[in-house]
Amino acid sequence: MLNFMINIAHKKYEIMDFTVHGDHNGNLISLEQDKNLPFTVRRVYYIYDIPKNIVRGKHAHKKNEQIIICLSGSCDFILDDGKTKKTFHLNDPSKGLYIGSDVWREFSCFSPDCVIMVLASTLYDENDYIRDYNEFLRIIG
Ligand code: TYD
User: Fold this and answer.
1) How far is residue 93's CA from residue 62's CA, in Å, rounded to a whole number?
2) How many domains does the chain have?
3) pLDDT in tens, 77-123
4) Measured in angstroms, how far is the CA atom of residue 137 from the centroid of ligand 1?
5) What CATH code is carried by the domain that includes residue 85?
6) Of 33, 55, 59, 134, which is most buried, counting CB atoms within 10 Å of its CB?
7) Residue 61 a catalytic site member
8) CB within 6 Å of ligand 1 — which residues?
9) Helices (H), the chain
10) How far apart are CA 40 and CA 12, in angstroms?
């Protein structure tokens, strides 16, 4: 598991399948440092009550890595490494979308009950954001 986690940290993005501890009492997922997380989590935030036709994100990060978990409902993440775009439909809290640095992301198509939790490798720093798409293309070369 640890080797898998080290490998994922070298990828641009990847779907992670979490182990579900489930029985007749319901489901539980545990995210634990050095076991099933590819980086040290320094920040957690969550997004909810998102109007249906809004597009969020529209940025990349210089350093920050993230794991996106759609805890409730569904939404679409469009990831762009400057060469190709890929859409991920998130609707399962047992999966995480790992996003490395230097990936442009836009997310949309939120269901009314959508709750997105983000685990981040860095503290909040506006200087880590690339908010201009042309600057993003220039930086990634
Ligand atoms: P932003 O990252 O632009 O949101 P999104 O990518 O989901 O569209 O952040 C929205 C606002 O929240 C912005 O004013 C910065 C603030 N913010 C924090 O204060 N701390 C945080 O950890 C994050 C992610 C955002």
Assistant:
1) 27
2) 1
3) 999 999 999 999 999 999 999 999 999 999 999 999 999 999 999 99
4) 22
5) 2.60.120.10
6) 59
7) no
8) 43, 45, 47, 56-57, 124
9) 2-8, 133-140
10) 17
Q: Are 128 and 122 in contact (CB under 8 A)?
A: yes
The residue from 10, 24, 59, 89 that is catalytic is: 59
Per the document, the length of the chain is 141
CA of 95 to the centre of ligand 1 (A): 23
9-57: per-residue pLDDT in tens? 668 999 999 999 999 999 999 999 999 999 999 999 999 999 989 999 9
Containing structural domain, residue 100: 2-140
Buried b vs exposed e over 41-76: b needs ≥16 C-beta within 10 Å? beeeeeeeebeeeeebeebbbeebbbbbbbeebebb
Query: Could you tell me which residues come within 8 angstroms of residue 3 by beta carbon, excluding any fewer than 6 positions away?
Result: none
DSSP structure string for 36-48: T-SS---EEEEEE
